[in-house]
Amino acid sequence: MDILVCVKQVPDTAEIKIDRETNRLIRDGVPSILNPFDANALEAAVQLKEANGGTVTALTMGPEQAKNMLKECISLGADKAVLVSDRVFGGSDTLATSYILASAIRKLGKFDLILCGKQAIDGDTGQVGPEIAEHLGLAQLTFVAKIDIKGDTITVDRELEEGYEIVEAKLPAVVTVVKSINTPRYPSIKSKMAANRAKIDVITAADLPEINPEKIGLNGSPTRVKKTFTPPKRESGIRICEETGSAAALKLVEKLVAAKLV
After folding, report:
1. Could you read off the pLDDT tens digit of each residue along the chain, which spans 262 residues?
2. Which of 77, 86, 147, 233 has its CA 20 to 30 A from that of 253?
3. Does domain 2-215 have CATH number 3.60.15.10?
């Protein structure tokens, strides 16, 4: 079974700060990490490879520095990694990004399964995986918490608010996974050393001659960010401390009346 995993290098949201004057992200000094949901997708791919044999390829679009993240993917069990990188791809929104990735996937060959995280923590759109499926004309199964493959049939448990939905499809297919599907493994010292020596293949726009220039980059991106802002900081609440519950309730009513809320 040949599996491709789409991954993304994202800023560590725990370290992000906002410039109060410009309302833009302050990226200087903010470390980049493997998107956590993509780590779950990679772990799912490696587990399927261990159970069924085959290969796992990690694919990302980004700048040269994304090679470090791809080497991390190799240390976690991917057999090879490919970087899609070109200045003309800069500014691509999810639609343009998925179009470019789908073109790169076609160049790489046929895969039995394409896995993605349900969303990236920097954009939170959850659109790229389904859009790749649409570009490639493949079945898509989203928010997947469990995968079972028998022959050319894939059966998944889709995580819903009220429970799980069991869905079946024919391979090849595109699957986006949720956090609960697994716990990603840690790389070993040996796998890290091997990954550091790994060669990362690079695909540029010149390698994808069929791409329409009008569908990539800023010009090919129908999405426009008109404004960004930070929400106002909420004031801390008050704590009512009385000897009895009745007294506390009375005090609460008094404050609500004073605030003209009741």
Report:
1. 999 999 999 988 776 677 666 666 666 667 889 999 999 999 999 999 999 999 999 999 999 999 999 999 999 999 999 999 999 999 999 999 999 999 999 999 999 999 999 999 988 899 999 999 999 999 999 999 999 999 999 999 999 999 999 999 999 999 999 999 999 999 999 999 999 999 999 999 999 999 999 999 998 999 887 777 777 777 778 889 999 999 999 999 998 999 888 8
2. 233
3. no
Total-model pTM: 0.83
3-state class (DSSP) for residue 192: helix
Residues in the chain: 262
**Tokens coding 17:** 């700060």
What are the DSSP E strand ranges found in the chain?
Answer: 2-6, 9-11, 17-18, 25-26, 32-34, 55-61, 80-84, 113-117, 139-150, 153-160, 163-170, 173-177, 201-203
One-letter amino acid at 160 equals L
Strand (E) or helix (H) holding 107: helix 94-108
Contact 144, 178 (CB under 8 A): yes
Give the Cα-Cα-Cα angle 193, 198, 204 (nearest 5 degrees): 145
The Cβ of residue 217 has, within 10 Å, a number of other Cβ atoms equal to 19
What's at 193, amino acid-wise? M
What are the sequence ranges of the domains in the chain?
A: 2-215, 232-262
Q: What is the dihedral of CA 14, 20, 24, 25, to 10 degrees?
A: -20
Instruction: Find, among 16, 77, 14, 65, the residue nearest to 41 by Cα.
Output: 77
